[in-house]
Structure formats: structure tokens, C-alpha cells
Design a protein that fits this description.
rod-shaped, two-stranded antiparallel ribbon
Length: 657
């Protein structure tokens, strides 16, 4: 019965049973097995075996307002079933939608005929039994007059019920029974044979057990005094763990507990199309395990049956017991973020880098890295890229002008070699934002670390060389007949390379100490960042040399502020250095605040991209925009001593050259 309840997922049912041995022990075993399968009872009603209408109505009234269950299990003897069902039909609302599930006591044919009058469906169990022809023939030819005195009363009672007569005198309108008349074919099909094979088996069990004891105590089976002194415990031990063939060909096996392996069939009874008729559908059987008839149970499955206290939990929720309710009643509580529900009972936290989905699975979180990913603010990525592309276009245009007008006096006076070196550093700076949006890897992280500081070094060294040359040329303490040393292009390029090599050695040392590579940062329970493992200490040490160069360039820029007005490249240098200092201080403050106040390394990388590309743009426009303008539009410049000139005078050009 419990396996059938479990099969239909009827986990919340009511129980009605009689207070006799059959009902009390039957419901006790039913509850014990049901508890193992997670099935509980909404209501348990015990009815007295002797019918009393007031008592029945009072107790069955507890079923008047059934909630969350349409299934009632019955463990009652046959005499109590019909009165109970009649009262149920009058008390319970929508009784035709209730499903009854009865034990084998409901399987008697005479009872089924009466239950069919109750317009509701019900399932009942029946012991698998076989008809024994010899026993059937014996009953059909049985006469009351041939029965001994011990059995006469019982046979007479059965005879009166079956033959619809009476042996008593003085009862009107009832036919007098004939004790010499046989039962014949008046026996209802299944009435006498329903348990006849089990009764015969029981007789044979006792007889065979007694025979085994007698053979053991008195092999000759004659003149044995011990035969009158056989104990019940000895006979019981002999019966246990025995096996023998039944009269109908079955094998009767008795286990160590004295129980016989039995089999049951399940039947579903529904009212027929005509009044007083019913359909009895075999829906399955149980022989050690449940076996259902797929073609038959479709009728039962098509009917909506409510027999669950609580609905199954879905969408990553677990069951939480309700106080003062049975174990199968619960509320559904959602698991915390980052956890999944296991068997609707436990919230299992997913590991770092994993997120729970609605299908109660831990799925890996896709890493976010500094890129054009829609999960990253476009304001952090697109502006540096736009400035990078714009800067490279302007740089290539400047390079084109310098190459095309390579022999222009202004281009020559600007120090072409140092300008080309400066443009190389700026080009590498403009590549930095593009490198940043690539997926982090060992190669990418190392390249990014180098491009963060080395291009600025390559740009600052030529500026330092140019400002140093201007300071030495216009030094008032220098004798005008002596040419300053290291002012020719080749020595200045060699010296610049040596100065740049200092930064390269510094970067190599930092890389050897801690090689930059990709790493996972668990920014939050729902967000994972893929970044480079470059530390803030590495970044600060990488820019120490650049800071010294900026201080030197700013100092020289301040020194050359009073150079002749016709040589105001020095003034452009001074302005560029002031702007660089302001921007670097601002970026340093922002970077420190971002690094200490937030673990968002993607934001820190965006700040680096802005810093590198904006510094490069300032240097490019401050140093080369005036030169390109003068080269392209020379006639618009008034070369008089009082005007503000952007190019060098012929005298200054000779000195610089």
C-alpha cells in the first residue's frame, strides 16, 4: 500500500481505521512504512467496530474540511465500511472527488456491490488467490445436516446469508431453509474462494510442522508417549524457515519470522455508466516489488488528485519545516546567493568563481577583463581608445610632414634625430590602450607592464636632451667662441640610448623579481575579474626614473623661460613640462585613491590607460603642433622682432645646428 502511495506521489493522506486488532495493527504498520518513504497523515480517525451513528458522525466530522489531501486510506473490517462511507458521503463536501484507498478487507464481492452505490472512485488491495477445484466442489455439495455440532452454527449463518433464508421459526416473509439442500451454484464468485487457498495452506503448515516434530521425537510414529507433550515453541521453531508445495501448485515459503511471502493485486473501482454498476480495473500487482499496468493506470492518472501538504520546492529553494505540522509539510526558502539547493534540503555554497543558476547547478562565472565587454562601462574603455587612434593619426601625419620637409630649416633646427626618437616613444604610448584591451596572458601582461613606463622614458629623454642643449647654448657664463659639447646629433642619440637603457635595466629587474602574469580576482560573489598580477609597488618603482626625468625637464624648462623670443621652442617645452607635472600629480592622487579605496583593478587599469594616452597627447601637441603649423603655413608668420615667433631665427639655428 505504501509503495502504491509513493508511486502516485500521494504523500499527504488521511487514515480511518477500526479499533479492532486488524485496524489498529494494520494502521500501525502502514504508518511505520509510510514514515520511511516520507509519507505522513493529515488526520487519523479511529472508529469503533460496533456501529454507533452519533459516534461515527462525530469522528468522521473531522474529515469535513479536508485541506491539501483528497486521499483517505481505510483499514477497517467489512461490517464498518458501509456505514462509514454513507456518513462520509453526507458530511464531506465534494465527496465524489475524494479517492479512497482500502486494504484487502474492501475486496469482498458483496462489499463491492454496496460500495458501488457510493459515487466516488476507490482503490483496494486483494490477496492473490487461486481457486481450488476440489474445495469448490466440496462447498457446492455441502449440506448443513452433514455438519458436526462444532461447525453447524457457523455454516448455518453463512447458509442463511447466501441462500437468503432462515432456520429460525416464526419469521414472516422469509423462506425457511432446507438443511438437506446443497449450496450449489448459489455461492457468489470469489466469496468462498477469496482466501480459501490461504486457509488450506494454514492447515497444511500446522499439519506438516506437527508431522516433522512427531518424526523427530518418535520415528516409528507408534506408541509414543511424547506425542502428548509437544510444546508450542518447538512446533513454531519447526514451522519457521520451512517450505512446501501448495495444493494449487504454488510454493509456500515461510521465513524466520514465521511470515509467508504473499502477493497482492491492486484494483481501481469507479462508478459505471448505469446506476448501480461499477467498473473494476486491475491497475497492478505486488510480488516483492510493485508492478503497474501502464494501460490501466492512465485512467487514474488522468484524474486530478491532491495529496500533498506542500508543493515541491523549485528555483533554488529548500524545504523548511512548519512548526506543529507533519514532516511532509514545509515552506520553501530560497538559498543565499552563490548557493544551490541539494535534494531540496540543504543549501550548498558554490566555490569562488561559481554562481548558482535556477537549475540548481553551480556554473562558472565568465571572467571580466578590461575590454569592450558590455559588462564594463564604456566610459572606462572607449575614450582612451579614441584618443589612442586620434593620437596615432596625428603622429603619423607629423612624421609624414617631417619626412617630406626633412630639409626645411625649422625641421633641421628642431633636432630631427631626437624628434624621431620622441615620436617613437609617443607611438608606443598610443599603443598602450590597445594592448590593455587584450585578454590577459603572460605575454600581454609583460608587454603592458613595459609599455606603461618605457614609452614615457623614450619621450622624456629627448626632451631632457633638448632642454639641456638650449640651457647650455644660452648660458651667459659660456664663452661665445666655444661650442658646447655633446650638441651634435650623434652624441645626443648615443647619450639618449644610454639614458633609456637605465629604465630598461630597471624594468628587467622588476620583471625578474615578480613576473607579470594573468590572475583571477574575485571582486564579488557574482563578479570575477581577470587582470595582470602587476603590483602597485612594481608600478611605483617603474615610474621612479620617469619622475626624476620629469623633474629634470621641468627644471630645464624653467631655466629656458627667458630665452630669446625667436627661439620659443624652449617656451613650448616649459609649458609641456608644467602641464605634465599637473597631470601626473592628478593621476597619482586618483590612482592612490582607487588603489586604496577599491579592489577594482579594472578601474585602476582604466586610469593607467587614460594617464598614458593623455600624457602622450600633451607632449605631441605641445612639441609638434607649432612646428607642423609653421612648416605648412610659413607666409602667415610675421618675422619681426616685436612679434611672437614660433620658429628659430637664422642665427639661433646656426648655433643649435
Amino acid at each position: 500500500m505504501v509503495e502504491l502511495l509513493q508511486y502516485f506521489n500521494w504523500t499527504y493522506v488521511s487514515a480511518v481505521y477500526t479499533d479492532d486488532s486488524y485496524g489498529v495493527h494494520g494502521i500501525k504498520l502502514l504508518k511505520s512504512e509510510a514514515k520511511k518513504r516520507g509519507i505522513c497523515f493529515a488526520t487519523e480517525i479511529q472508529l469503533p467496530v460496533i456501529y454507533n451513528e452519533a459516534t461515527y458522525r462525530e469522528k468522521i466530522g473531522q474529515l469535513a474540511n479536508l485541506n491539501r489531501t483528497d486521499v483517505i486510506t481505510l483499514f477497517c473490517i467489512g461490517a464498518a465500511i458501509m456505514p462509514m462511507l454513507n456518513i462520509m458521503a453526507g458530511i464531506i463536501k465534494n465527496f465524489d472527488q475524494i479517492h479512497l484507498f482500502g486494504s484487502e478487507a474492501m475486496g469482498n464481492s458483496w462489499l463491492l456491490d454496496n460500495i458501488a452505490q457510493i459515487k466516488t472512485g476507490f482503490v483496494y488491495t486483494r490477496l492473490i488467490s487461486n481457486n481450488i477445484p476440489d474445495y469448490q466442489n466440496y462447498l457446492e455439495n455441502l449440506r448443513v445436516e452433514n455438519i458436526n455440532s462444532n461447525m453447524a452454527a457457523l455454516i448455518k449463518l453463512s447458509y442463511e446469508q447466501i441462500m437468503n433464508c432462515t432456520f429460525k421459526n416464526g419469521i414472516k416473509n422469509v423462506q425457511r431453509c432446507n438443511s438437506s439442500q446443497t449450496f450449489g451454484t448459489s455461492l457468489l464468485p470469489g466469496y468462498s474462494f477469496y482466501v480459501s487457498d490461504r486457509v488450506i495452506d494454514a492447515v497444511y503448515v500446522f499439519a506438516r510442522g506437527l508431522h516433522q516434530v512427531l518424526k523427530a521425537t518418535c520415528p516409528s510414529l507408534s506408541n509414543c508417549e511424547q506425542t502428548t507433550k509437544i510444546s508450542g515453541s518447538l512446533l513454531l521453531d519447526t514451522i519457521r524457515n520451512s517450505s512446501f508445495p501448495s495444493v494449487d501448485g504454488r510454493r509456500v515459503d515461510i521465513n524466520s519470522e514465521g511470515e509467508v511471502k504473499g502477493g497482492y493485486t491492486f484494483h481501481y473501482v469507479i462508478p459505471g455508466n448505469k446506476i448501480g454498476t461499477w467498473q473494476n480495473i486491475n491497475i497492478g500487482s505486488w510480488l516483492g516489488r510493485l508492478k503497474m499496468n501502464a494501460s490501466s493506470i492512465s485512467v487514474l492518472k488522468s484524474i486530478s488528485v491532491k495529496a500533498q501538504c506542500s508543493e515541491p520546492c523549485k528555483d533554488n529553494k529548500i524545504k523548511q519545516r512548519i512548526h506543529d505540522k507533519p514532516v511532509c509539510c514545509w515552506t520553501c526558502v530560497e538559498c543565499p546567493a552563490g548557493s544551490i539547493a541539494i535534494n531540496e534540503t540543504t543549501c550548498y555554497p558554490c566555490g569562488q568563481g561559481y554562481l548558482a543558476n535556477k537549475q540548481t547547478r553551480c556554473i562558472k562565472i565568465h571572467e571580466i577583463f578590461y575590454s569592450l565587454d558590455k559588462r564594463i562601462s564604456k566610459f572606462l574603455v572607449i575614450p582612451p581608445l579614441v584618443l589612442s587612434v586620434l593620437g596615432m593619426v596625428c603622429l603619423l601625419f607629423t612624421l609624414y610632414i617631417f619626412i617630406k620637409f626633412n630639409d626645411n630649416p625649422l625641421v633641421k633646427a628642431s633636432g630631427r634625430e631626437l624628434c624621431y626618437l620622441l615620436l617613437t616613444g609617443l607611438l608606443l604610448s598610443f599603443l598602450f590602450p590597445i594592448v590593455c584591451i587584450c585578454r590577459p596572458s603572460r605575454f600581454k601582461c609583460q608587454t603592458q607592464f613595459i609599455l606603461d613606463s618605457l614609452p614615457l622614458t623614450i619621450s622624456l629623454v629627448p626632451i631632457a636632451m633638448k632642454t639641456n642643449r638650449v640651457v647650455r647654448i644660452f648660458d651667459p657664463t659660456r664663452r661665445i667662441t666655444n661650442r658646447p659639447s655633446f650638441t651634435r646629433p650623434l652624441p645626443q642619440i648615443i647619450l639618449s640610448i644610454l639614458l633609456i637603457s637605465i629604465q630598461i635595466v630597471l624594468l628587467l629587474a622588476l620583471v625578474i623579481m615578480q613576473f607579470p602574469k594573468e590572475k583571477i580576482v574575485y571582486f564579488s560573489s557574482t563578479e570575477v575579474h581577470l587582470v595582470c598580477s602587476t603590483t602597485q609597488t612594481q608600478i611605483l618603482f617603474a615610474h621612479m626614473y620617469n619622475s626624476i626625468l620629469i623633474i629634470i625637464c621641468t627644471y630645464y624648462g624653467f631655466r629656458v623661460r627667458n630665452t630669446p623670443s625667436k627661439f620659443n621652442e624652449a617656451k613650448c617645452i616649459a609649458f609641456a613640462m608644467y602641464a605634465l607635472c599637473v597631470m601626473i600629480v592628478a593621476f597619482f592622487v586618483v590612482f592612490v585613491v582607487a588603489a586604496t579605496g577599491s579592489s577594482n583593478e579594472i578601474l585602476q587599469q582604466a586610469i593607467q590607460s587614460y594617464r598614458v594616452v593623455l600624457l602622450a597627447m600633451v607632449i605631441l601637441f605641445c612639441f609638434f603642433a607649432p612646428k607642423v603649423y609653421i612648416v605648412l603655413f610659413p607666409r602667415k608668420i610675421l618675422f619681426n622682432e616685436e612679434s611672437t615667433a614660433v620658429c628659430n631665427s637664422q642665427t639661433d639655428q646656426v648655433l643649435v645646428r
